[in-house]
């Protein structure tokens, strides 16, 4: 029994000094990401970069005759609209979340098209891929009109923008570092991509 104990103790001591010589390094554990804090920081960084007036320099629209909303837009093929409209973005005057959710950016603005100006709004949420890799679009959002409550007559110009797929669609947003440019990519409807240039 004594010899067995001595043998096992010696074996344990020898094994404790064993070193791997196969060149394989142990994997490091990546630090845990605080998604809330990263989202808040992203919204703080994005706000000054997107606030201002932008020209919708190129609006790429996919032709799909099966889409129900093409009443005002008669497309026969994929199309690109040049300098379609101007978008002015500002922080939302009244928070849309109570208490205020700083993980998302809340913005109001105006969209100028065809000599008319329409109120718009969108709330940006951080894109999960960007939170993980810091690459690609920074956020996603739904772009909508923001008319006061009550009934109103829909003008042909605003109907055109909605039928085109610019309004009431979800987009991803990618803002370029150090450049006065921004790209939106549509998710569901006709607008595939919008290239913006800041004025």
Entry summary:
The chain has helices at residues 2-16, 35-50, 128-133, 156-164; strands at 52-61, 79-82, 86-91, 104-113, 116-126, 139-145, 169-175, 181-186, 191-198. With 199 residues, the protein is an alpha+beta fold. The model is unreliable at 5-9 (pLDDT under 50).
Structure description:
By secondary structure, the protein is α+β, with helices and mostly antiparallel strands. The protein is 23% helix and 35% strand. It has helices at residues 2-16, 35-50, 128-133, 156-164; strands at residues 52-61, 79-82, 86-91, 104-113, 116-126, 139-145, 169-175, 181-186, 191-198. The protein has an eight-stranded antiparallel barrel. It is globular.
Number of strands: 9
Q: What is the CATH class designation?
A: Mainly Beta
- Specify the structural class: alpha+beta
CATH architecture: Beta Barrel
Average pLDDT works out at: 86
Series of H and E elements: HHEEEEEHEHEEE
- Fraction in beta strands: 25-35%
Give the C-alpha Rg: 27 Å
**Percentage of residues assigned to helices:** 10-25%
Number of helices: 4
Query: What's the N-to-C terminus distance?
Result: 88 Å
Number of domains: 1
In terms of quaternary structure, the protein is single chain
Named CATH topology: Lipocalin
Uncertain residue ranges: 5-9
How would you sum up the global shape?
globular
Most strands sheet: 8 strands, antiparallel, barrel
Strand order of the largest sheet: 1-3-4-5-6-7-8-9
């Amino acid at each position: 029994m004594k010899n067995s104990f001595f043998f096992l103790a010696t074996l344990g001591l020898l094994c404790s000094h064993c070193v791997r010589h196969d060149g394989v390094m142990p994997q490091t554990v990546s630090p845990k990401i605080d998604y809330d804090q990263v989202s808040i920081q992203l919204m703080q960084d994005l706000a000054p970069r997107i606030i201002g007036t932008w020209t919708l320099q190129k609006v790429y629209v996919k032709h799909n005759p099966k889409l129900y909303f093409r009443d005002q837009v008669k497309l026969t093929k994929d199309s690109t609209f040049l300098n379609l409209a101007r978008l002015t973005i500002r922080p939302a005057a009244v928070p849309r979340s109570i208490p205020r959710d700083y993980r998302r950016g809340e913005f109001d603005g105006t969209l100028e098209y065809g000599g008319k100006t329409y109120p718009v709004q969108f709330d940006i949420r951080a894109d999960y891929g960007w939170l993980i890799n810091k690459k690609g679009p920074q956020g996603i959002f739904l772009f909508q009109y923001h008319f006061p409550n009550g009934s109103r007559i829909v003008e042909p110009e605003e109907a055109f923008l909605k039928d085109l797929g610019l309004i009431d669609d979800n987009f991803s947003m990618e803002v370029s570092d150090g450049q006065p440019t921004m790209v939106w990519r549509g998710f569901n409807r006709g607008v595939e991509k919008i290239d913006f240039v800041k004025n």
